[in-house]
Amino acid sequence: MPPEEPGASGLLDEVSGAERALAEAAARDRPDADGEAFFDAVIAADQKIEPRDAMPEAYRKTLVRQIAQHAHSEIIGMQPEGNWISRAPSLERKAILLSKVQDEAGHGLYLYAAAETLGVDRKDMYAQLLSGRQKYSSIFNYPTLTWADVGAIGWLVDGAAIVNQVPLCRCSYGPYARAMIRVCKEESFHQRQGFQSLYVLARGTTKQREMAQDAVNRYWYPSLAMFGPPDSDSTHSEQSMEWKIKRYTNDELRQRFVDMTVQQAGVLGLDLPDPDLAWNEERGHYDFTQPDYGELFDVIKGNGPCNRKRMEHRRRAAEDGEWVAQAAREYARKQAERTAVSV
Ligand code: BYC
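That is the input. Now the predicted structure with benzoyl coenzyme A docked in place:
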């Protein structure tokens, strides 16, 4: 039998650890040194870099790239599941899904706010998403063909997101780390609702069970690919680990996800579509078949099954919502005018 692996609740212990670390870091004195020495000292002491602290330009750019991509993922990620809000099988499931999709919008907003502390404008990030210069997670370019896909996304995609994001609660950049603490708590809830939804389907009629298995078959490898290219092809991992933005490599997190998920699949009574999945006593981990990284890069380049559809939808939403944005800007302008007059 494999040793007990960290499940979602074990991983959440790391979140409260991160909260404690943040409180301690805030109370501790910072080194007096300026610029580079200051930055190096803070990173070496495992403390947080805050928005007004000195930081290398490359560190700032890496964070903007990653946080913007993360924020865009949350917003684009509303589409595949949003597709099922009007067709959920019961009022209860509809209410749960609606809340979940709203949570994703909230995550996007915390993350855009975190990126803005690095001196970038939300409008610019948004424009870069629409022009294709900034990316979002590959996983949201796959279609949601059946109701079971909503459960599979909750279980596998949110499950992968938690494994990836819990270590980000200890990221060296304060605003990103703090945003991640709340995001992870909500993602953990999302993962459990996906698991529960699949659990019910797996014990339903033969057709429901087949639908659940089919969804897991289609979402397994794209979920493994979410962790990024293998370490040997990862362009940013080494530097991001040195800066303590990333705490684990892509392959380490992928393995952690597999180890956790195999056991959950057993409880669900569903199969993972990999005949080579096997516990490796020597490594203390499951062996598994890697996802097709050629497909991952193709999807990142814009050639996945739904890339065009997702971007068209986003562009249309931006155009259709422009009158709301205009009204909000005008309201803010008038409020500012009023405040200026009354001062
Ligand atoms: N998709 O050097 P690497 C959610 C890119 S939303 C697309 O390893 P890095 C949810 C990578 O950007 C969760 N692109 O990069 C929402 C880089 O390209 P560029 C989203 C990918 O940054 C709604 C190149 O490949 N999570 O949970 O060190 C409903 C080389 O990669 C992907 C995050 O955003 C990919 N899968 O590591 C439900 C987490 N993988 O930028 C759920 C935060 C790699 O040089 N991000 N690329 O052109 C991260 O942790 C890291 O950015 C990654 C990649 C692990 C994803």
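The pocket of benzoyl coenzyme A is lined by residues 65-66, 69-70, 73-74, 77, 104, 135, 137-138, 153, 157-158, 161, 164, 225-229, 234-237, 240, 250, 300 (CB under 6 Å).
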